[in-house]
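Sample entry (221 residues):
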Amino acid sequence: MILAAGRGERMRPLTDHTPKPLLEVKGQPLIEYHLKKLAAAGIEHVVINHAWLGEQIVALLGDGSRYNLSIHYSAEPEALETAGGIVKALPLLKSLLKNQRYFTVINADIYTDFDFNLLPDDLNETRGHLVLVNNPPHNLKGNFDLNDHLVVRKQHNQFTFSGIAVYDMALFAELSQKKRPLAPLLFELVEKSQLSGQQHQGIWFDIGTPQRLDEINRMER
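Predicted structure, serialized as C-alpha cells:
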C-alpha cells in the first residue's frame, strides 16, 4: 500500500494544484519511483489511497499496467491520516492478500534507493517491522532506536522512521474507521516488544518542504 492522501500543507504553494505524490524529482513524479521499484521486487498488486486532488493520481497511474502492476485505489473524501487510511483500505487489502497476513506500506512522499527485496516475508513473533534511517537534519532527536532486531525508544534516539514498513493485517482489523494517526499504535507495539526493525544506510529523503525538494533535485543532477 502506498499512502498518498496527504494534503501537503508544508509543500504549498506547490501542492495547491498538484498532489504531493505527483511532484517531480528529476523530471519524474515521485510516486513512480516507488511503483517501478515495487514491480522490480516482484510485487503484483498495489493499493493507493488518495484524497486531495486524488483524481490526478488516478488519471496519471491508471490501472498500473504500464508499470507491470495492478493498481487499486482507496478514495478518502477527507484524509484519514496513516492508520485511518489503512483501516479504510483493509477490505481491499484482504481481498488482494487472500490468506497472507502481512503487507508493505510506503509513504508516497519519500525518495529512496531502498531495495524492497530486503523486507522480511514473515514477522515471526512481532506485529510490525520498520525500516529506519539515520536522523536527518529536520529530525535530529529521532523516533526510535534498535536493540538487536527489536525497535525501542530511548531519550536520545539514533534513527528516524523511513515511512517504509511491514504490518500484520490483524493489527488494524479491530480498529474503527476514523481519522487516526499511526504513531500511537507504533509506540504501543514498542512497549510490548512487538515491533522489529532494520537500518537503511542508503539514499533517503522525506520530501516535506519545497526546500527539500529543491535539495534532492540539485543533488541528483
